[in-house]
Design brief:
There is one protein chain. Helix content is 18%, strand content 29%. By secondary structure, the chain is of the alpha+beta class. The strands form ten sheets. An eight-stranded parallel beta barrel has the order 20-21-24-25-28-29-30-31, surrounded by four helices. Strands 32-33-34-39-36-37 form a six-stranded antiparallel β-sheet.
């Protein structure tokens, strides 16, 4: 370890580098005799010091002795430390925490006892010692009673010639605080008394270059091109001791982008605090899982977030670490889980802290964190991580655990896992095995938390267990639902709606489990990239039209009654129009304008979650599409768990702009079936027809493969749900 050094020469304090030489004598002027006497040098020991070395070399054949005293001039009989080898011109003092007296901060006087006619050199240095604390990145360390005693730093830079630590604690000096080399290519140092909030960077020396680098594991940066900041994630006092994550089959996910969720047009982007102001609205809506688009630091302030430049850091435009913790805590207090998206298929590519981190690379590729060949190429830049390098695998695994442990998130959505498992060169066994590794680690430590993949290519292989060769994800976004369902909703002509495709969308599953998929009609991807919100797609420029309102809510009813984990996208519940952009905030005036539509979503969510105890089958894993009428565009399905009253649910979807007053479908049990939901109710919107849909009693008329049936009444573009 090295320390900041101050010298006193001719009454002037001089700033010296971490290792410095002073030629003496420095006091007393030219020698007038050959008598013995002291020459003095003043040294200031800063907080980064754990040891301090002074070496004396007399010129020629002369002898000299070395004395040291803190806070005053040393003498032959008044000193703290001395090196007085007889008839030696070389003396060394090494002062450490375990010497007597131990090293302390403050001013030390160095005294050289020598003949006045002699000259000498003093070398001051602060030998580097590796950190005694485990872990990579910056981590505060504590005393036994929990008081922060300092900060440990460790960074992986295997091709560095040296690494130094610069920060607000040493004036961002590029020389004063070298770090100690360790086996395995890491460099470390302990800085006593350094507290959270200190800013820092690493200075990596490679082939004569000095490269200023942010910490790859910094939990905060001042901005995407700024400095790293020391953080103590353990300082937050959590209040969620009684929280339990909702069961997976009870989840209703609300996907949200912090920057636009609750923001003023033209102002600063939304952040954790602005989203927190609407947390009670979300709880009242009935959703119980909030999925945040990526919150790792990205370039600039406005972005979807899929360009992480600092994967471990919380996006500075959204807030600080404690702001994220407060948001999660508040959600947990209301029974809501919090997920976020993580991006490992590529990093950056702009404002990327890891690019050629320690100076090494092959043929201009990305260096130690990335593939250094064509496997690095992605649609977003040549920055695919090297999933075959052990240190990179651990780095990314630790990032997974960071979000789940330090911030208590309840799950992660892994972006585009197909671009991890495959490259432009074909199948990538490194990536596939890393996904297995990450999921195994998560399952071993927190198996109740949810790992979701966005893949769209590997089918059951995504959610099959790692023991059977699968990636091991708990669930995956389902393209087999969203695309045929949107097609059926958006098609201008009723005759073009394909009920067979709708049936297949409803029945699709992965790995034999209905809840191994996340289903939706809107997501950040589906309402951008050349597409728009479902109401906008139905009638561009007229998203508040009768057709847009009726068919978009019909799609929402399908999402919230079909098997799978349902997901909504922010604003969907109050008929947000247009398409999603990171600089276009939600229009919250629509919540008032379309309050009835918002009520429809609330009722659907309550139906899906069995809030009233009479639609338990929507939480079950069994589905039977028992009625399909492609001519009249009507489809019905039976959802159930164990079956019976309060569990069996019949859902009917009418995809034609035509009401029915006498439409027979099969029912699984005899008796009275009550309408629990009718999307055509005029209370949801004045344009809705309020076609009567009332309770029915079954007839002993076999129909749709069932022994009982009944004649139903329902409106155009309508969903009704019935149970006993």
């Amino acid at each position: 370890m090295t320390r900041h050094l101050l010298g006193l020469a001719l009454g002037v304090l001089l700033g010296l580098p971490a290792q410095a030489q002073v030629t003496g004598p420095t006091t007393g002027g030219p020698a007038r005799s050959d008598s013995w006497g002291f020459s003095y040098q003043l040294i200031g020991v800063p907080q980064t010091a754990s040891q301090f070395q002074v070496q004396l070399e007399m010129d020629g054949t002369r002898y000299g002795d070395l004395y040291l005293k803190r806070g005053g001039l040393p003498g032959l009989n008044d000193f703290d430390h001395a090196s007085t080898d007889p008839k030696s011109g070389s003396e060394v003092l090494l002062i450490k925490d375990d010497t007597t007296p131990p090293l302390d901060l403050g001013i030390y006087w160095v005294g050289v006892w020598h003949r006045k006619s002699s000259t000498y050199q003093l070398t001051f240095s602060y030998p580097s010692e590796p950190s005694v604390h485990p872990g990579l990145g910056s981590r505060v360390y504590r005393s036994e009673n929990g008081i922060i005693e300092g900060t440990a730093f460790r960074v992986w830079a295997p091709f560095a010639d040296s690494v130094r630590l610069a920060g607000s604690f040493n004036g961002f000096s590029a020389t004063q605080t070298p770090m100690a080399a360790e086996p395995g290519g890491t460099w470390s140092i302990d800085v006593p008394n350094l507290q959270p909030g200190a800013r820092y960077q690493y200075i990596v020396e490679h082939d004569g270059q000095l490269l200023w680098r942010n910490d790859p594991r910094a939990r905060e940066v001042t901005n995407s091109v700024g400095e790293s900041r020391v953080v103590d994630p353990e300082s937050y006092v959590w209040t969620d001791a009684g929280y339990q994550m909702p069961a997976w089959n009870d989840l209703v996910i609300y996907e949200m982008h912090l920057g636009t969720f609750y923001d003023e047009p033209g102002g600063l982007v939304g952040d954790f605090d602005s989203a927190l102001s609407q947390i009670d609205y979300l709880a009242g809506l009935g959703v119980n899982a909030l999925q945040l688009l990526p919150i790792a630091e990205f370039a600039g302030d406005s972005s979807w977030g899929y360009n992480p430049g600092h994967p471990f850091a919380v996006e500075s435009a959204y807030g600080r670490v404690e702001d994220l913790q407060e948001f999660v805590d508040a959600a947990h207090d209301r029974g809501m889980a919090v997920f976020t998206d993580v991006v490992y298929n590529h990093l950056g590519p702009s404002d990327l802290a890891l690019w050629q981190f320690d100076g090494w690379n092959e043929a201009g590729w990305g260096g130690i964190y990335f593939y250094n060949d064509a496997r690095a190429v992605t649609p977003w830049g040549d920055t695919r991580p090297d999933f075959g390098r052990g240190e990179v695998r651990t780095y990314l695994r630790d990032n997974v655990m960071l979000w789940l442990e330090d911030y208590r998130l309840d799950g992660l959505r892994f972006d585009s896992t197909s671009n991890i498992a495959f490259t432009s060169q074909g199948f990538n066994p490194d990536g596939w095995s890393w996904l297995q590794f990450a999921n195994d680690e998560l399952d071993a430590s927190q198996p109740w938390k949810l790992a979701i993949a966005e893949d769209f290519s590997s089918g059951d292989g995504v959610t099959n267990s790692t023991a059977s060769g699968g990636m091991g994800f708990d669930s995956q976004w389902d393209g087999r639902f969203v695309h045929p369902m949107r097609d059926a909703l958006i098609a201008p002509n009723d005759d073009d709606r394909n009920m067979f495709a709708v049936r297949d969308a409803i029945l699709a599953s992965y790995s034999g489990d209905a809840f191994r998929r996340v289903i939706y009609t809107e997501s950040h991807d589906e309402v951008a990239n050349g597409s728009a919100r479902v109401p906008e797609e139905i009638w561009p420029g007229n998203a508040d039209s009768y057709y847009s309102k009726k068919r978009s809510t019909l799609g929402a009813a399908a999402v919230l009654t079909a098997p799978g984990i349902p997901m909504l996208f922010q604003g969907q519940e109050f008929l947000e129009d247009g398409y999603f952009a990171d600089d276009d905030p939600l229009d919250w005036t629509k919540l008032t304008e379309f309050a009835g539509i918002n009520s429809l979503y609330r009722d659907l969510i309550a139906l899906r979650r069995n809030v009233f105890g009479n639609t338990g089958g929507l939480l079950g894993g069994n589905t039977n599409v028992h009625h399909l009428n492609n001519g009249d565009k009507v489809i019905a399905y039976h959802r159930y768990g164990a079956g019976g009253p309060g569990d069996d649910v019949i859902v009917l979807l009418n995809f034609r702009n035509l009401p029915w007053s006498d439409y027979r479908i099969g029912l699984p049990r005899s008796g009275t079936w009550n309408v629990r939901f009718n999307s055509d109710w005029s209370g949801y919107d004045d344009d809705f027809t309020d076609h009567p849909s009332s309770s029915v009693s079954t007839d002993a008329i076999p129909y749709d493969g069932m022994a009982q049936s009944a004649s139903l009444s329902f409106g155009p573009y309508t969903c009704i749900a019935l149970s006993q």
